Amino acid sequence: MVAQDNEMKLMDPEQLSVALIEAQYALKESKGKPNAKSVLILVSGIELAGKGEAVKQLREWVDPRYLRVKADAPQTFNHKQTFWQPYARFIPAEGQVMVMFGNWYSDLLTTAMHVSKPIDETMFDEYIESMRAYEQDLKNNNVDVIKVWFDLSWKSLQKRLDHMDPGEVHWHKLHGLDWRSKKQYDSLQKLRQRFTDDWEIIDCEKEIERDQQFAQHILRTLKHCPDHLKKAKGQWKQAKIPESLLSPSEDVLPKNQYKDELKQLSKKVAEALRFDTRNVVIAFEGMDAAGKGGSIKRIVKKLDPREYEIYTIAAPEPYELRRPYLWRFWNKIQPEEKISIFDRTWYGRVLVERIEGFANAVEWQRAYEEINRFEKDLYDSQTLVIKFWLAISKDEQEARFKAREETPHKRFKITEEDWRNRGRWDDYLKAVADMLQRTDTDYAPWHVISTNDKNTARVQVLEAILKQLKAE
Amino acid sequence: MVAQDNEMKLMDPEQLSVALIEAQYALKESKGKPNAKSVLILVSGIELAGKGEAVKQLREWVDPRYLRVKADAPQTFNHKQTFWQPYARFIPAEGQVMVMFGNWYSDLLTTAMHVSKPIDETMFDEYIESMRAYEQDLKNNNVDVIKVWFDLSWKSLQKRLDHMDPGEVHWHKLHGLDWRSKKQYDSLQKLRQRFTDDWEIIDCEKEIERDQQFAQHILRTLKHCPDHLKKAKGQWKQAKIPESLLSPSEDVLPKNQYKDELKQLSKKVAEALRFDTRNVVIAFEGMDAAGKGGSIKRIVKKLDPREYEIYTIAAPEPYELRRPYLWRFWNKIQPEEKISIFDRTWYGRVLVERIEGFANAVEWQRAYEEINRFEKDLYDSQTLVIKFWLAISKDEQEARFKAREETPHKRFKITEEDWRNRGRWDDYLKAVADMLQRTDTDYAPWHVISTNDKNTARVQVLEAILKQLKAE
Fold first, then answer.
1. d(CA B7, CA B213)
2. Domain identity same for A266 and A415
3. For B133-171, how does the pLDDT look when each residue is reduced to its tens digit (9 = 90+)?
4. In a domain, A233, yes or no
5. Which parts of chain B sit beneath pLDDT 50?
6. What is the DSSP string of A36-69?
7. What residue stretches are annotated with the Polyphosphate kinase-2-related domain (chains A, B) (predicted)?
């Protein structure tokens, strides 16, 4: 909870401006350093309280080149969209400051106030809880989030409406709320009090105090240096490596049977995906040469390329590394995309990044919960997540590597890195075991396909997709 | 015009695959090198011809990790959107290959076939011309564009419809055309013949030939090494430096008069911008300390931050440098943004990039036309572009630099780079003169504000905005 500074002292505007600019430059300089962070400022409040004026004043005090303002009119929730999807693109990179006018809270309020079938208190509070969890994940990933509510009493609001310039009426109306209705005002206040206890509340009776309180709060946030945790607290409890990872089945599916089953299944899968009202995300992980590409090929066999998108995940770009590691996935999964297929996924955080040390212990140990929340948010917004681990034996991998090296159009698939990864086979098994134990949830269960026979794996993948689609 | 290879020879699929993969890797390796390029493949054609199948086969022959497929259902034109806006984000970066199913041509066909008030032949042909000019700009900026039309005779189409799997009907219907109507088929064919003379036309009677012709065409394109022009052809004709740049007015606006005028004008500008049905882009260029920031502040004075977005343009990021230099501006200007204000702009190409040598002579000399086309496309899609050059004298700049250095909250604005730029004052004057001469168009005229008095400049900027808004 943010301490409410009831006795805020006015600073000399010149000094305040210099302090803000210095803090901005320090933030900018932190880029890539251990204490790097970015600042996300969520702004909401009562109409005519003066949010816009305060942000404009802030822009004049700071160096405006390093302050971005994103301002959208609030929108009601779309049931196929998580609350963060419209905004994820604008999460600031290390060193940046972003003010967001339209944000998940204004959307929530708009939804609660406007839709014909409003969301009830339980749902409202569940949203709040998810939003706070999301913000905590942002903070853990070096995005400092602060929230500011611009408040105005009923009486003052009415007075301001009386004196409003006719030229401004147009914009004012855009919001769709009737600010002359005491009932609407009261219910909005009641709703926002369900979430503003960790917000900076600004009483907007007086302009100068309003702008100063806002700017001083930003200044404190800019100056606050996060201590990024480096060391994990307790001992890590390694999961037992399940049998499915250690000894994949050696049974071979006869070729004719495979052909028949594949034909039927790929048709069924295409139809089931096509007619399902939800969006579907299919995620593939597995050792190199485990058959991810081959499985994907069979999923899309009877689909038209316009019906799906395939994402092949490689190492992140520099601009992606300056944001939370899930950021690039937040932005890839789009509400308008019916079927998204991932060849490698966000689980890289707890696999390759853990093993190669790209993520420190605190980071990868925290990631399981972050990933679970991410998948839960997708699930809650009508997006089914179907996850596969393709398990093969170490011998089978070697055989496939060698076969690839001998096949002209496949030898490109084998690089030195693949052989190097193979050297860490046991580390991967441990990481996979932890991953399966900690992220196998009701809403996004793992399918472990454990077989050294490619064709069996493909058939099992298709069957698992059908099963999960039908299960719900 | 692409030569039609009537006697295409089938290649051994294994060899074709290896050749494609090798070409992909060569393309990938070209990144950052003199012959770097990316490849954009636009795909359209008759329903059921097998575009999807051919792309799927291509995906199996190449290394799918380095081929992206973007497939959207065609959409009718939105009159506030340029034809490239929905796709600009997906223009591939150096080293990448992108297949686009939904593209500006499919949108054009859909618009021509579907809307109640269809576009006439003249408009249709004008669109084609703009599209080709846009593609030429892409090519000049290292994006190789190829276009492939998958064709199918009326008879074969009907046969395929007869034998279509009922499960596929759903997708087929999404297209909205009645493929059983000979009239619709014929008018589509007639329309597409207006633009497909520089396309690769694939007759899709036979599957194997279809897939091979497509893949072989891609292979030729991948292998084609562009010769990026380095040297300009003729002598550059330097424009005469206009008086307005050399001797800005010294008249000073009395403070009281300024206050009165500013108050009235900022209100009028806010209202005019707000009630105009078009989107507005306001672009500021000027020497350092010319007053760009101050002018912007006065434009937004009576606006709410939710009504506009301000973009401060700095040096491009590495991922932006791997795309055409206008790319980052294509993506910043959004149809849903009413007012976009730029503090520095795309004119950087013919100013700082020309002067510092970041763009070679061919590149910056070509840029004037590219920029004109860009602004024309915006104009044609209901977006008014208002451009300012703020001219001050060299002495006035020095005075402002010194004043900034003495004002605590302004001294951050002055860096060594500013003094260095000042050293190239005359080079800048020449570049500005060329820019004004070559990009002062009917649809996007320049406003040269030539005064050493800050307040006069601000008033003139506001007046110019009002005038251009009312002129049309």
1. 10
2. yes
3. 999 999 999 999 999 999 999 999 999 988 887 666 555
4. no
5. 1-3, 174
6. --EEEEEEEE-TTSSHHHHHHHHHHHS-GGGEEE
7. 19-223, 255-471
Contacts of B55 in chain A (CB under 8 A): 305
pLDDT, tens digit (0-9, with 9 covering 90-100), for A189-205: 999 999 999 999 999 99
Question: Are the C-beta atoms of B324 and B91 separated by less than 8 Å?
Answer: yes
Of B167, B274, B309, the CB nearest to A171: B274
- Is A87 a domain residue? yes
Domain end call among B223, B253, B270: B223
Q: What are phi and psi of B391, to 5 degrees?
A: -100, 130
**Number of domain units in chain B:** 2
> Chain A neighbours among B 281-320 (CB < 8 Å)?
293, 297, 300-302, 304-307, 309-310, 312, 314, 317-319
The verdict on residue B147 lying in a domain is yes
Please check whether residues A213 and A342 belong to one and the same domain: no
Residue A38 pLDDT level (bands cut at 50, 70, 90): very high
- Strand-by-strand arrangement of the B200-203 sheet: B67-70, B97-100, B38-45, B143-151, B200-203
User: Strands (DSSP E) along A292-401, which ranges?
Assistant: 308-312, 339-343, 383-391
Long-range contacts at A224-229 (CB < 8 A, ≥ 24 apart): A224/A144, A225/A35, A226/A35, A226/A37, A226/A139, A226/A142, A226/A144, A227/A35, A228/A34, A228/A35, A228/A142, A229/A362
| Residue of B409, B413, B418 for testing the chain A interface, max A β-carbons within 10 Å | B409
- On whether the CB atoms of residues A90 and A70 are closer than 8 A, the answer is yes
Which of residues A223, A251, A278 is at a domain's end?
A223
Rounded Cα gap, residues B302 and B267, in angstroms = 6
Nearest to B305 among A69, A300, A312 (CB): A69
Confidence of residue A1 (pLDDT cuts 50, 70, 90): very low
Q: Which of B21, B165, B270 sits opposite A409 (nearest CB)?
A: B21
pLDDT value for B66: 87
How far apart, in whole angstroms, are the C-alpha atoms of residue A161 and residue A169?
9
Sorted by sequence, the CB contacts under 8 Å of residue A189 that are 6+ apart come out as none
DSSP string, B379-423: HHTTEEEEEEEEE--HHHHHHHHHHHHHSGGGGGG--HHHHHHHH
Together in a domain, B82 and B147:
yes
Supply the CATH number for residue A271's domain.
Answer: 3.40.50.300
pLDDT for A210-264, tens place per residue? 999 999 999 999 998 766 666 777 889 999 999 999 999 999 999 999 999 999 9
Distance of alpha carbon B358 from alpha carbon B347, whole angstroms: 13
**Burial of residue A44 (number of CB atoms within 10 Å: 0-12, 13-18, 19+):** buried
Chain A closest-CA separation from residue B384 CA (Å):
21
B185 shares a domain with B324: no
Inside any domain, residue B299: yes
Verify that A419 and A290 share a domain, yes or no: yes
3-state secondary structure of B143: strand
Instruction: Say which residues have a Cβ less than 8 Å from residue A425's Cβ, sequence separation at least 6.
Output: A287, A394, A397
Over the stretch A381-413, which tens digit does the pLDDT of each residue have?
999 999 999 999 999 999 999 999 998 888 887
**Same domain membership, residue A251 and residue A208:** no
How confident is the prediction for chain A on average, in pLDDT? 92
B345 lies in the same domain as B385: yes
Among A118, A13, A131, which residue's Cα sits nearest to residue A76? Answer: A118
In angstroms, what is the C-alpha Rg of chain A?
A: 26
Does B166 reach chain A within 8 Å, measured CB to CB? no
Range(s) of the domain holding residue A32? 13-223
CA-to-CA distance for A344 and A286, rounded, in angstroms? 8
Chain B positions touching A291 (Cβ under 8 A) are: none
Angle at the Cα of A330 from the Cα atoms of A360 and A38, rounded to 5 degrees: 60
The HSE-up count of residue A419 (CA atoms within 13 Å, CB side) is: 8
